[in-house]
Amino acid sequence: MSVNISIIRETTPGENRVALVPESVKKLTDKGFKVYVERDAGENAHYPDSYYKESGAEVLENPKEVFSHSQIILKVQPPTPEEIDAISPGSFVIGFLQHYKYPERVKKMAERGINAFAIELIPRISRAQSIDALSSQAAVAGYKAAVIAANLSSRFFPMLTTAAGTVRPSKVLVIGAGVAGLQAIATARRLGAVVEGYDVRKAAKEEIESLGARFLESPVVAEGTGGYARELTQEEKDMQHKFMADNIGRSDVVITTAQVPGRKAPIIITRDMVEKMKPSSVIVDIAAENGGNCELTKAGETVEYGGVLIYGPLNLPSTLPTHASEMYSKNLLNFLNLLTKDGKTLDVDFSDEILQKSCITYKGEIKI
Ligand code: NAD
């Protein structure tokens, strides 16, 4: 019996992405999978039902109908409690499941015998790069943060030489040079700004400089494990505070992306630092969803403080849903390759650390 794969319309407010785009559906149907799609599943990402049908999918009216046909359900956001009730026991659910935020949904999935894999828990090893949805979506967020910053700013990013005189380029500081930060740096550079990057990991220096930006050298180095940063000690936080306070006033635009795994985002820009910034400066804080890197950030809002605009966007990948979905969909296709054999059978090999580490419920058990 061939494996049936399905997607439904995401119902989380503000979520425009879809888990599979028609191009990926075609790859699956060519391999022999059957694909079921809820009506209008791709509408907000601008993939109409007709594209899915042309790719070999069957479009059904509602999630209940879709679930009744599927062994594998691909999602962007975690399934809602109502969706979990409608999913058949023994089915597989794969998506950004956010188990720390929704422990009751994890429990419910285990109770209903649903096998759940959280794409955000995939280990960031070389072999998993093509499945790394955290990276693909962080790249979208970093790009969009720079574009939003340029839009909010009252200044040009590039230098302009015109008959009306020469305009100096904007100075952009990107704090946190991981996947999102590096993409923000690259985008701000393409827009012509003079860009500085700052991070507490040593490896970031080379990456920032390779993008044509200046590395803001600080006395604080805080390498953690697995290529991530660790939380700073109080002494290091004080050093970072002094260093930032001395530097931040030079920037017209600050984009903050700093995160420490498993913790609230570190506060790097304090109120007194914002007071040192020029009126008309802009802060785009993409760590807002996780508490923010600026003390004054309000998630989902734009705050004005002494003429400085501070914006804390939520779910930036969803604001670029066509490409964000395309990238995410490719990540899921690559994950499916690990989970299935020859397009016909489901084969969960837990000796593979990618499957083992991303599994949150299996055969009635909670695995995390
Ligand atoms: P992240 O989202 O956890 O953090 C973003 C950045 O914030 C990181 O660069 C971190 O060093 C920085 N940061 C944390 N605390 C800070 C502080 N107090 N001050 C300044 N900066 C601070 O990180 P990420 O973007 O997911 O990736 C982090 C690392 O993992 C990078 O080195 C990246 O290249 C690596 N990575 C590897 C793979 C892979 O090998 N498959 C995939 C993705 C990322």
Explain this structure to me?
By secondary structure, the protein is of the alpha/beta class. The chain has 2 domains: about 5-120 and about 320-365, Rossmann fold, CATH 3.40.50.720; about 140-320, Rossmann fold. It is built from 12 helices and 19 strands. The protein has helices at about 20-30, 50-55, 65-70, 80-85, 105-110, 135-150, 180-190, 205-210, 235-245, 270-275, 320-340, 355-360; strands at about 5, 35-40, 60, 70-75, 90-95, 115-120, 160, 165, 170-175, 195-200, 215, 255, 280-285, 300-305, 310, 340, 345, 360, 365. It has an 8-stranded mixed sheet with strand order 3-2-1-4-5-6-18-19, sandwiched between helices. A 7-stranded mixed sheet has the order 11-10-9-12-13-15-14, covered by helices on one side. It has a two-stranded antiparallel ribbon with strand order 7-8. Strand 1 (about 5), helix 1 and strand 2 (about 35-40) form a beta-alpha-beta unit. Helix 6 (about 135-150) packs parallel to helix 7 and helix 6 (about 135-150) runs antiparallel to helix 11. The longest helix has 20 residues, at about 135-150. It starts with a strand and ends with a strand. The mean pLDDT is about 95. Nicotinamide-adenine-dinucleotide binds near residues 198 and 227.
List keywords for this structure.
single chain, 368 residues, alpha/beta, Rossmann fold, 2 domains, binds nicotinamide-adenine-dinucleotide
